[in-house]
Amino acid sequence: MNLPSSTSGVVKVAFTESPLRDLEATIRSRTPLIAMESNEEAQIVRMVRQIAQKFQMKAYRWTITEGLQAFEPCDQPLKSVTKAQELLNFIRTESSNCLFVLLDFHPYLSDTVYVRSLKDIALTYTKHYSTVALVGFSLKLPEELRPFTAQFNLPLPTLEELRSIVLDVASDWGAEHGRRDVQTTNKALDLLVRNLAGLAATDARRLAFKAINDDGAISETDIPEVTRAKYELLGRDSVLTFEYETARFSEIGGMRRLRHWLEVRKEFFLGGSEVQLDPPRGVLLLGVQGCGKSLAAKAAAGIFGVPLLRLDFGVLYNKYYGETERNLRKAFETAEIMAPCVLWLDEIEKGIAVQDDDDGLSRRMLGTFLTWMSERKKPVFVVATANDIMRLPPELVRKGRFDEIFFVDLPSAQNRHDILNIHLRKRSLDPAEFDLEALVQSVDGFSGAEIEQAIVSATYTSRANGHGLTQEDLIEEISQTRPLSVVMAEKVKETRDWAATRTVPCD
To answer: Tell me, what CATH number does 462's domain have?
Structure first.
């Protein structure tokens, strides 16, 4: 499949008329102030200009660098209006039936003088009928201005519009490089368009150009880099982190039942099945520390072939009332924009365990989470991991919240054999040179992480002694290690006893 190039150099993307109609309705509602959180300045300016021309209104844009500029030269003020206070005085006393677009005015919104001036403009609206649009990436309106302000959100491009953007970028790139077409496939093009969903037009155009510019084509190998770049744009103010490296179950000893469970549901999660079933929602992984819950979360993303986002409850909390819940909601919004994806909630009990000494914060966090779990529409598969089931509220663990609750137990003899094999090979060691059966018996009661650490420590010791790792080195290191199942035997036993009849084993 080839995408034809163009020699016109004209941007041909045409957005739907709905945003224009919505903005027109907002302006005609006689609201003095309009707040627009967007980086799409050019599109907003074009829309305001069209509306002004339609209703024969004067229209202006203001920036701190260029001052007040009329859209039509004949409307330019006789005197220069550059300073912010001059601008606000001009709007209040010298304008009539005008539209003003104030770009990046938000730094002035923390100054009481400018806030009061904007309020005066709003209060005297019936004298001048001029509307002021505040445009910026992030607008935090003072409470004094909220009663006079309408919020206008520029809709994100649809899939059809994104496809048009990609085709337009390919056309321009081909013309610029003297090529007749840009090679791609229908599958690669569809994947690129789908992965650009949730981005503004400018950002989508930039990422599409990067995908094409690398090799002059659109291929499936471009998608991971596009996904990473997309997250970097969306996650600037998010508490989510993008896990660049997922895992495979071949890198994990055991968990065969969990792997099969995920593989059965892969097709339905990605929407590839003709049978209409509810997509899988997520799983809760309980277990002994160090037994592979985190690896299982990474492997779930690997099976589905989707990005893995991790929510760190440690950076979620904010000292200001309401900000923690806001951070959580923003994290969920980002996850839905990144969909399809796996959302990994690591040690969930640290975030939403109900406590009596936190002024109800954990209860509000739980409510926010449960509401999102029941109402989300996008394919976001949740993998929550927990070490202490007793700290989780009953509302979270009841049937229906998660599709299944799996228990990750201490590895069996077969799993310990597999884990030893994996970690020896990982360090370029031949398992055949070791007595694995003896090692399997010696690490009985060890978690996967403890087995790996024993191999690492023994390797350090052997290198320090001037030779390679031997069976004796490993046995010596293992004999000096006290696993968690011994150090905290009572706690581990309590967890295993609770899970025995209440959860599904991973193996």
So the answer is: 1.10.8.60
